[in-house]
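Researcher: I've been going back and forth with a colleague about how Large ribosomal subunit protein bL19 might be arranged in three dimensions. Neither of us has a model we trust, so I'd like an independent prediction. The organism is Rhodohalobacter mucosus, in case that matters for your notes. Sequence below.
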Amino acid sequence: MDKLKLVEQTVVRDDIPEFNAGDTVNVHYRVREGEKERIQQYEGVVINERGSGANKTFIVRKMSGSVGVERIFPLYSPFIAKIDVKKRGRVRRSKLFYLRERRGKSARIREKDSINKNQNKDKE
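Model: Here is an independent structure prediction for Large ribosomal subunit protein bL19. You can compare it with whatever you and your colleague have in mind.
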């Protein structure tokens, strides 16, 4: 059991920011094409997190044209260059699979800070 934890600790990275379901993230992913390597950005909403430790994965959903595209990323993959959190979403559940059936305005997620901004404007 201790050997398993030891191996997991070598894989786990500390440069990955904290994010949850509902957050909009920009994943910088290394793509290898032949002998060349480039970084591809994938920006979308995190709809699912699963697993724990070195096996943790997350699903990012984005709209490409009018088609929804989802991609599963292993959190501690060496191909992930970095993850930027663009917006913090205010959601009431951890799995957002209901977004698959929604389009347009009904698929929007409120921002966490928008409530505080409105309250501060009323005070001024």
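Researcher: What would you highlight for our discussion?
Model: I'd start with this: The chain has a mean pLDDT of 89. After that, consider the following. The longest strand covers residues 36-50.
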